Amino acid sequence: MATIILVGSQWGDEGKGKVIDIYTEYADAVIRFQGGANAGHTIVIGDQTIILHQIPSGILHPDKLCIIGNGMVLNLETLVDEIDDLHRNGYFPDPSQLLISEEVHLVLPYHRLIDVGKEEQAGAKKIGTTGRGIGPAYEDKVSRKGIRFVDLFDEKVLREKLESNLAEKNPYLVSRLQQPPCDANEIFDAFRGLGERLKPHMANISVVLDRLVKEGKQVLFEGAQGALLDVDHGTYPYVTSSNTVAGAVCAGCGIGPTMIDGVVGVVKAYSTRVGEGPFPTEQLNETGTKLRDRGKEYGATTGRPRRCGWIDIVALKHAMRINGFTSLALTKLDVLSGIETVKIACAYKVNGREIDEFPANSGELASCEPVYEEMPGWDQDISAIRDYDALPPSAKNYIDRLQELLEVEFILVSVGYRRDETIVLENPFA
Ligand code: IMP
After folding, report:
1. How far is the CA of 49 from the centre of ligand 1 (A)?
2. CB of 10 shorter than 6 A to ligand 1
3. What CATH number does residue 272 fall under?
4. Kind of pairing between the strands at 327-331 and 29-32
5. Predicted model pTM
6. Residue 172 is part of a domain; what is its CATH number?
7. pLDDT tens-digit map of 206-221
8. What are phi and psi of 134, to 5 degrees?
9. CA dist., res. 248 & res. 258, Å (int)
């Protein structure tokens, strides 16, 4: 297999970053295809900590090509911070290692102000966004007001777009959202400067990918967020503003579906979510606190504590169907060690009936009661285990039951934070 998509199957934060790091070893190129700086990936190497929000972590390996696809919304101001941080730490010496789609839409200062202002105004009805301007940037893309990377190199187009956008947005920012107005000249100068600095990275990604695939190179598509935050198939309206499912790779990079060889879904051994929205298996009790503390469940981008609960098969089967997973990676199994009884939600009860399909209506989902299957847990610290057969029998039973319910196999089991605390059962590219 040459082209593999790796996506989250829950509400993001499944531990994709670690799996991506492991699979990057096998890949020649790593590509992001949706989302933006709402994602976050903290990499600890010795005493260095590097936080990447937009650049694939493959950038830490000098021989891997890293690509920012057109389906993302790119914040150039924070991108240069990421690049500077990499340079400071001695990484990314060769600029040709990073390519940015000429078609990618940009996050502008007014997008962040609108995001934050709208959330403040929404009060109890807020979405709980990351405040990175992601939604307003995608809104502009769809309403054909967006500014793309390539537009930075056409002074006339850039000035016209900025002026017409701000004529509309400034009154909205000031009167409706009580936010400061933006100055078109200031943004023009700043973004022309950013454009000049980043121009060497600009490329036609679709052409590059076509060449890589024809040369038989191994390409890894890196998803951000997770299936249940997908703007179409997630818990709408409590979702992000892009399609997070595997199918988004094609539109988000300019590659045809026939070019994709496999889809790996990352499944955390329990569930978490940040921000607002329904979460049927949430544990607002000691179990939830235990999962949060043991799993260090705090947002990588915003630092917010994550809501925690049991694994949810109804939601995961929905994720399976909308992504077409060919294999699965199980993460954070070690966090469940020491829990006497582990629970798996296999169905929901709502309005007196039992259902096993994920409701489209967020209100209905919020009133669903999970129907749990209980299994004995395990006590042992499993982080030193590298051989699947050496896992405690109860841990293996848990994995077997998940596989049985989901009808797809796990090809990786993560048993700890560190890179080597992993049981790799199969190379997805093999
Ligand atoms: P936005 O993507 O900032 O607009 O936020 C919309 C929703 O998606 C909020 O509930 C966020 O908490 C959530 N979200 C966005 N990015 C991530 C992520 O990388 N991990 C987990 N949740 C995310």
Report:
1. 22
2. no
3. 3.90.170.10
4. unpaired
5. 0.96
6. 1.10.300.10
7. 999 999 999 999 999 9
8. -65, -50
9. 13
